[in-house]
User: Fold these one by one.
Assistant:
Number 1:
Amino acid sequence: MTYEFCYLVSQTFIIVNRVRTRMPGEFVHIAQIFNGDHEGKEVAVRGWIYRSRSSGKLCFIQVRDHSGFMQVTVAKNAVPDADFEGAKKALLESSVMLKGTAVKEPRAPGGFEIQAKEFKVLGVSDNFPITEYQSEEHLLNYRHLWTRSQNLTKIMKVKATILGAAREWFAGNEFFEVTPPIITANACEGGSTLFELNYFGTKAFLSQSAQMYLEALIFSLEKVYSLTPSFRAEKSRTTRHLAEYWHLEGEEAFVGNEENMSIQEALVSAMVTTVAKKNPEELKALGRDPADLLKIVPPFKRISYDDAVKRLQDKGYDFAWGNDLGTNEERSLVEGEDMPIFVKNYPKEVKAFYMRENPENPKVYLCADLLAPEGYGEIIGGSERETDVEKIIERLKAQNTPLDAYQWYLDLRRFGTVQHSGFGLGIERIVRWVCKQEHIRDTIPFPRTINRVNP
Ligand code: 4AD
Ligand code: MG
């Protein structure tokens, strides 16, 4: 290439670049205007009408996009006639595309407005069925439209960050992401919450947990994780149970219960500190101080179930050894804690058949639940896995589970078994804590609960 040619190419590149960044009519997001870079310049925005009022020759329209809200003034003499008529008539939630000048306007929310030169209605809206002060039931019936609300939008952004941070953490720690089945023939977490389905004439279930399949995959990949929906036919209405939730599960070869907890605390810390850094505005608007999350750094406290029982009894709880911890007990145990805590080594009666018996105390398993602070309760259940095939068979028999569907799982103990551990984290549980939500249903766009499967 000649020097001249290179020069020509580089100049053209510069010109094209300059034109690109200055091109009037290139769409920007509303939040980009608020930082002042576009002051006095022409901008183009796409979004939906959030509020609107008009007085004779002037319409004040608040437009929202995913990044925020902005006042747009549409003056009769500044836009084509059809645009003005369209703006005047358009109902809330109509979709719009507009061009205009971004100017400072102290009276407008946020201190900026766009003075429109063009205002096109893309999709007109009927009378929007959601207005202020609507019942929870009504909002759930119109969930497909209510997902446009500010709170749900913020929560979904936080959730997207949390999922991204989790995947990034796993990838950075030599875990392979795998894709287990959702339709299964065996229960992982007990028969009472199983959703049954007719699988070409035989009985099958929707997965409660990918764990057993992850266990199979450690024999090739050693450290694996999956993110799948899990299904629980939870028959009671609570603020922390969904019938369908997103389950993040890890499984690790050559790892015992204590190291399993170290993995979980590093993962949880990465998830919540990332969201504190990436979404501070969303968090603050939801009532969560990002500083609370930046404090979540390993190690987390580890107390035994035995200690938990003593603490509860000292606080006056009528709680006997052998009972499972309920919402109130979990809340009490984290009183005064800034970080999540592990409660480990639960009695066998309250946990699942696949956990490893504690060699030092056969009454309990080598397991741990992670409890979120502020009373949000269990966010992770994990354990070391039983490797003794006879013990597993004995437990399945004791609970009257036919062994047929479990033969493949038992094989994992027969062909080169190793010490291994794993855990399951409820994504909506962690989002509920991080976003300070009263009810878990607001951490998922389309909640599935005992009395709702639609929309
Ligand atoms: O404690 P769980 O039942 O443990 C398991 O499923 C294990 N097999 C996981 C594993 O070791 N791979 O469920 C794990 C987590 C809970 O700690 C909770 O966060 C969440 O899943 N979870 C639910 N989240 C929302 N709605 C429900 N109904 C949930 N049930 C469990
Ligand atoms: Mg559990």
Number 2:
Amino acid sequence: MAVKNVYFFGNGKAEGDAAMKNTLGGKGANLAEMTNLGIPVPPGFTISTDVCAAFYENGKKYPAGVDKQVLDVLTRLEKTMGKKLGDPNDPLLVSVRSGAPVSMPGMMETILNLGMNDRSVKGLAAKTGNHRFAWDAYRRFIQMYGDVVMGVPHEEFEGAISDMKKARGVRLDTDLRAGDLERLVDEYKRIVKESARKEFPQAPMDQLWGAINAVFGSWMGDKAIKYREIENIKGVKGTAVNVQAMVFGNFGDDSGTGVCFSRDPSTGKNEFYGEYLMNAQGEDVVAGIRTPEKIASLAKENKAIYNQLVGIKNKLEKHFRDMQDMEFTVQQGKLYILQTRNGKRTGTAAVKCAVDMVAEKLITKEMAVLRVSPALLDQLLHPMIDVNAQKAAMALTKGLNASPGAACGRIVFTAHEAEAWHERGEKVLLVRKDTSPEDIGGMVVSQGILTSTGGMTSHAAVVARGMGTPCIAGAHEVVVQGKTMSIGGRTFNEGDWITIDGSIGEVYEGQLPLVTPEVSKDMSTFLRWCDEIRAASTRGNLKGFEVWTNADQPDDAKRAFQFGAQGVGLCRTEHMFFDKEKLTHFRAMIVAETEAERKEALKKILPLQQKDFFGIFKAMEGKPVVVRLLDPPLHEFVPHTPEETAELAQHLNVSVDSLKTKIDKLHEQNPMLGHRGCRLAVTYPEIYDMQVEAIALAAAECVKQKIPVRPEIMIPIVITARELKLLRPNAEAILKRVFAAEGVKVDVKIGTMIEVPRAAIRSGHIAKYADFFSFGTNDLTQMTFAFSRDDVASFLPVYLKKVVLDVDPFKSIDEEGVGFLIENATQQGRAVNPKLSVGICGEHGGDPATIDFCYRAGLSYVSCSPFRVPVARLAAAQAVLNNPPARKAAAKPKVPAAKKAAGKKAADKKPAVKKAAAKKAVAKKPKKKAAVKKIAVKRFAEKRPAVKKTIAKKTVVKKAAAKKPVAVKTKAKKADKKVRTSGSAKKPAVKKAKK
Ligand code: ADP
Ligand code: MG
Ligand code: MG
């Protein structure tokens, strides 16, 4: 027998169900599920996504037998309805609807009222006794079909109808009468013939196949392809086609149509939410011709229908265990549900729904944690542009979403101006080609930062994220020239207002209203669950999976601590020098020519550093603080302008010329590969000596003040064990000397950053001299790829577009290359030093896909910027749930009764989520292919939703937690180990990475 490609639903029974999303698409699978649940759904059938796939594989030909299957099931539909397609007396009308396994709102086509023709329109008019309705249905059909199937520009139809309204002296479509519409149908047919050079098809089967072709065709339409590209949707076979009996909401005042949500998708409150219009067809609600009514008023208008609808939404929500987004139509007092899906929601709503549903015993805590995407949680931590204002605004341009949140301010072009304007009480937005360390003062006072060059780890991006300042980097259409900025043809001057949305990378003209979300009690409850899950996790001997922070200043550390950071994974000492006083002494140190001069300058810096360290140690209340000794090339700190040079010359009491000569000597061709990191200490040991002494003194001070303290010293840019062999004893000697003198005992770990490929390869040797490793993945990525992270903008976008690379390696860790080095280094290091603590402190540490990788790779913690900490707590908990220990997975899966219904099915319906077979425990290589797939999925989930759709139709947000199916089942009980029951066994074995 031929493969089954067409699935019927109707009469309370369907051939498919919700578990078949891959085959039936989301819409079709849920229409089937609803039918089986006894919910009133107009009957119909679904042509599977396999047909779509085969269609494209076979040069746009359908597999054999599909036409026969369609004919059979159509006959069945006609029997069920007691009407025939194209019947001149009482025609069956159908809709032909697209529906992919992944929701692609508005990307593909739907055709309504199919089956109308010159004969059936008369039958429909006679049968319903409503001529206006019949002719309106026909003219709507010609318009949709003409546009979608025959490629007639829809403006032509719109022109014709507006001419007709003008001729009749009426304003609304609904004011046109039957005769007008009949004439309009003639005009429409004429338009079709002229534009498509073909008659409008009259035979219903021609119409049907034309529509089916168009829906399958729309899968490869430009906009659908683009959408999948942007949303990183991969591994989806195609769209399904749903053919469904029409029901009419435009039959009169006892008919209507609407969209509703089982809970409020913007607040998450458990309140029925939605809009409807009486006497209207689906597209009228969207078209905005009439203002829809709130769903609550339906209770007054038609109590019986309202109650029925409430009953259905309760049933569906309970069944799917998630907030539902439903389309309904009432025809002459009878209610039909046309679609249901898990509703997209704002971050606030995602957290509230998750927490409430646990309290309602609808879902487990683990399900709740898996359901909120990190990107949605991130929304809750930053100001956003008011949804409606953003919807109404046109973006001027788009750059990289380098640091989330929205900001609004007056344009300034230099850090200096930023500070000056700020002094005068102005809100400023710093616009530059790029930023460098000396801009820090201006960056701090800016509401937001916009740069035309640079990538996700450019100076502007890294600093902005650290400060929690919204930032767009690499907006290459922005041209900054002196005190003007032009975008496209538009020019902006200093002082003009602009608004940026750092979460999506869009720039807007003027002042858009911003809203600051409240951090709720729900959020802390939710994050507490995340912490419990992380703390209870086990990978081999490794217990827990921590989230640390990168903090350079006591303020940052304090904030991160409040956000739940469990340690400081990276305290960059050089950032401390941006402070004016320190910078002067530091510059004096840099240009010093003798050791004595250098020591003299260092002596002045020591107490200032000591104070900073004390502040951070205190803020972290005994949690580990990893202090990285000086890392960047010295030239980064030298004066850049003539004024600064003159100032320093005066301070040093030397001539400007001789100072210039010294500065020139520091010039390097390629400073990032030059005299930096521990190389500075190999040549000038006194620099690190001073820093270690400052750390020791600050620690001693803590002990004396009874403040618990756990300093760790990190040596950067190590390439060989011999560097540590040389430098470690120096540091130990200083610690010993200071602690003895101060009469205190402090345990100080000394470790290294692994950020050069050679170090990752030689890690077994390096581990002999290191108490910990921390992967500096910015440099490690940069050096592994030989990509300068500040210069990738010119080619990386093309690499991604041509799929030479799957992901921006500066955003999500490159698992196959950099990730391989990380796993290797971790294994080698632990083999030599089993107590070796291993973490990551690059910018990747806040990226959910990377966090998942880090968990699989056996890292003890991830460290990220303070504002990423809550997101990382969630992403880390999700990593734990998504990667249960192998032993558990192999055990007989236990599905708590609570989840069997929706949960089990959800497991295999998400196309992109292909889990590897049971994951190996710690230190084993993760399955590479699976890992790569995973990244695609995670990034997809990670994108910030564009908050641009109207609530009524295509939902509030684009990407929501709802997207994430319950791919991993977990046990309900609190402290229980997680049990994984998803269809992992299906995944074929994938190639192992080489040792
Ligand atoms: P989209 O995916 O763009 O929402 P849909 O296939 O859901 O497209 O259909 C578009 C509109 O047409 C919706 O309002 C839907 O409820 C309505 N619609 C689709 N099929 C029918 C039908 N058989 N009877 C009545 N209305 C329908
Ligand atoms: Mg729809
Ligand atoms: Mg580095």
